[in-house]
Design a protein that fits this description.
Elements lengths: L8 H6 L2 H6 L2 H21 L6 H9 L6 H11 L2 H12 L13 H37 L4 E6 L2 E7 H25 L13 H6 L4 H4 L2 H8 L16 H30 L2 E2 L19 H16 L1 H8 L10 H27 L2 E2 L1 H15 L1 H10 L4 H20 L7 H6 L8 H6 L10 H19 L13
Antiparallel strand pairs: 1-2, 3-4
């Protein structure tokens, strides 16, 4: 680690080595060489005088990149693509004259950007699916565990711990749908020349339109893509980057919502994120157990959501067939969005895998509020026993206010049941009332909803992507 210059925390602290490699110079330049080979093969197959010997020479040096030669050449020509064309040519003297034939810099630059984003999206999908799998286990385990629900962060009709987890999962399922759509619809730029007109290929192939039409589909197939974008300027539309980062921003928003809920639940001491034996929560307060992983999820998520503005603005401000004011922004905004979402999903997986639930605390909080929530059932039972519904409603409203005052003003326990038992209008004993305080009676269809959601929505997706399952998240700090 360098200590005398800025080092991105995304690479040092948050993102995995796997994601970092996808955006590494080595990945980029190896992909450039694969694209040059694909171009040469295509041109040979379509009739240009390129020999098998030249192709084999290119293939032989696809991976052993002479970075030192390229670096020295760039100092002279100030052009990264031409420096690497030169370096490749040094290793491949027989093929030197046909490397990059008919292409412009964006042939390697833009096609590589698409390929890199495609690989990165696949890694994001893998991690997202594993988060869903862990959440599914959690939801199933706690599908029937009653807990207070909250609206406006005020106690509301009970739900279950597992049902709450399905809310987190449903948002991720929507993200996965968007992710699959973008992955399936990414296309290569292909080889369209300096302004997208393929004028250079018109020259190379003596105006043979039918042959020229075959170039892009053949390159796409060789690089593992279904097709290329049908039209372009010099670059692929920067709208593509907007679509990609919007998906990442959506995942970030879902992760942020989850992290908010965990932080609030940890404050309530109902559910906690993992806390290691040697972990320090505060330099001053030794007892602290801060939800630092969830806080980090929220922090990185905000970054990704805001970062999605970069490609949107870049897309909106491109001039005609291309301008270069996209370049520096793309180099920052796209990789960093992926590195950040990678760190977010690692944290998400780590937190879900180690969530600690405290049923006794959950029950204590629930029982403190349940008498208020049981009043409708109590009133119905009293009506069945011959009481007047309107009179009972007014009595229970008055008694609820009194019990609420005892809790909030006097700091006492909730004594609503005792107050109702003492009121002859209800004709119910305290023992009868306490029988109605079974929390599971008040969670509605929550356990059934969890089972149905897992069976009908989540499990089929997990089965479809079972080859991606089984990963464990490692976090650096």
């Amino acid at each position: 680690m360098s200590t005398d210059r800025y080092v991105s925390p995304l690479s040092e602290r948050y993102a995995s080595k796997e994601m970092q490699y996808i955006f590494s110079p080595d990945m980029k330049f190896r992909t450039w060489r694969k694209l040059w080979i694909a171009l040469a093969e295509t041109e040979q197959e379509l009739g240009l005088p390129i020999t098998d010997e030249q192709i084999e020479e290119l293939r032989a040096h696809a991976d052993d990149i002479n970075y030192d030669v390229a670096k020295e050449r760039e100092k002279i020509v100030r052009h990264d693509v031409m420096s690497h064309v030169y370096a490749y040519g040094v290793q491949c003297p027989k093929a030197k004259g046909i490397i990059h034939l008919g292409a412009t810099s964006c042939y390697v630059g833009d096609n590589t950007d698409i390929i890199v984003m495609s690989e990165a999206l696949k890694l994001v999908k893998k991690k997202l699916v594993n988060v869903l799998a862990e959440l599914a286990k959690f939801a199933d385990e706690y599908k029937a565990q009653p807990t207070l629900a909250f609206t406006h962060f005020q106690p509301a009709q009970p739900t279950t711990v597992g049902k709450r987890a399905t809310l987190w999962m449903q948002e991720l399922m929507l993200d996965l749908e968007d992710l699959d759509h973008v992955i399936a619809n990414l296309k290569l730029l292909g080889s369209k020349g300096t302004t997208g007109t393929q004028a250079s290929f018109l020259e190379l192939f003596d105006g043979d339109q039918e042959t020229i039409d075959k170039i892009d589909p053949m390159i796409a197939a060789k690089m593992g893509f279904k097709e290329c974008y049908p039209v372009s300027g010099q670059t692929y539309s920067r709208k593509v980057d907007t679509r990609v980062l919007n998906v990442l921003a959506g995942i970030a928003a879902s992760a942020h919502k989850f992290s908010n809920d965990i932080r609030l639940l940890q404050h309530l001491k109902e559910v906690e994120e993992p806390f290691e034996k040697t972990q320090i929560g505060s330099s001053a307060m030794a007892y602290k157990r801060n939800p630092m992983r969830s806080e980090r999820i929220a922090s990185l998520s905000r970054y990704v959501m805001v970062d999605a503005l970069n490609p949107a603005i870049t897309s909106a401000t491109q001039w005609f067939e291309r301008t270069l004011d996209d370049s520096a922004n793309k180099r920052l905004s796209v990789p960093e969005a992926f590195l950040a979402i990678d760190g977010i999903l690692d944290l998400y997986l780590n937190v879900v895998d180690g969530l600690v639930v405290y049923p006794k605390v959950i029950e204590k909080h629930l029982m403190a509020e349940l008498p208020f929530m049981a009043t409708e059932n109590i009133m119905m039972d009293a009506v069945k026993a011959g009481g007047d519904r309107q009179e009972l409603h007014e009595r229970i409203r008055t008694l609820s206010m009194e019990a609420g005052k005892n809790v909030k003003v006097e700091g006492k326990e909730n004594n609503l049941l005792e107050l109702i038992a003492a009121d002859p209008a209800f004709n119910m004993s305290l023992e009868d009332l306490k029988k109605s305080m079974e929390p599971s009676k008040y969670v509605g269809r929550a356990p059934i909803q969890v089972e149905a959601f897992l069976k009908e929505v989540v499990n089929p997706v997990l089965e479809e992507n079972k080859d991606l399952l089984g990963m464990k998240a490692e976090i650096n700090v």
